[in-house]
Amino acid sequence: MSEVNLDRERNSDINQLQRILEHSPTFHARLLDAVQEAVIATDLTGRVLYWNRFAETLYGWSADEAFGRNVLELTASAGSQAEAEAVMEILRAGGTWTGELYLQRKDGSTFPAQVSDGPIQNSRDELIGIVGISYDITPRKTAEEKQTLLIRELHHRVKNTLSTVQAIMTTTARSSITVEEFQKAFMGRVAALAKTHMLLTDDQSQSASFFDLLRTELEPYDNGSGRRIVLEGPRILLPSEIAVPLAMAVHELATNAAKYGAFRNPEGSLVVRWREVHKAQRYLAWDWNEHDGPPVDSPPSEGFGTKLLRRLLAQTGAEVSVNFERSGLHVAVSVPLHG
Question: Which segments of the chain does DSSP mark as H helices, in order?
Fold first, then answer.
């Protein structure tokens, strides 16, 4: 089809639409019923003269119920009544208004709405009524609130992360003899921190399961046999303020096991079991049991690794018990869970 014929057909459609608009009084109403916004027209006193189909859905009042009643009685919530009255005064004076109001449905429930109101004038430019468009913005407000919370959480996370990195650097420096030793230990601990943050970032609730935390830290030491590392326990989600120090503690335990414990021997194994305990509040109780590593002797005094472990877990308010048994290291931890 040529461009000339397309233009003729387009012009014919426009002319037909214009004739419909001029000769079909119900066409305008059909147009307004098709939009996904509440369209309401009132006289200058606020009495409803038109109430489209979406207004019926949004507010719960049928057009027959709404017709002739004051629009503020049908839509304004108790908390926004004064503000809605002020808007009506602006409109009665011939002005326009756009903004957000908390409005009310027939069942009494309220919702945030985007509202745009303006005057209706006759052919002599005389003010004869008011028309308003409104729609529910609950999804938008929910998204904005979530974004605000995420930004706040991000600021908090960054602050805590910087503090954690600083503490890692200080404690690693104190226990390192050479620069190479410091670099290796420091990078390993920062990598463990990064893995945990990745878990938290991938989860929309900003939490990580204890199982995923353990698996992430211990996977490099697993030989795939199903016997070297055994993890048993229910699914327990940990918020970031608990997950981060726990991941660091597990990293220290795994590093210690590779240097001195079960992971040093090919036949060595680790069993971690956990459960949820209910006392005055909820607790995550977990046990770290190493087996078949080199013989373990209890040190005469608490070493750096144990001190660091206690310091990390102290951030969660946990109770820690460390026992150097001949069969292998045993650590018992009880972490309070909030909520």
Answer: 3-23, 27-34, 53-59, 63-66, 71-75, 81-92, 138-175, 179-202, 210-218, 240-259, 304-314
Q: Which of 112, 136, 160 is the last residue of a domain?
A: 136
Measure the CA–CA gap between 168 and 283, rounded to whole angstroms: 26
Q: Torsions phi, psi of 247, nearest 5?
A: -65, -40
58 exposure class (CB count in 10 Å sphere: 0-12, 13-18, 19+): buried
Q: Report if residue 252 sits inside a domain.
A: yes
Check: CB of residue 193 under 8 Å from CB of residue 213: no
Question: What's the angle, vertex CA 70, arms to CA 68 and CA 72, rounded to 5?
Answer: 150
List the CATH number of the domain containing 284: 3.30.565.10
pTM for the structure as a whole: 0.49
pLDDT digits (tens, 9 = 90+) for 180-233: 878 877 777 677 667 766 666 554 555 788 998 888 888 877 877 778 899 999
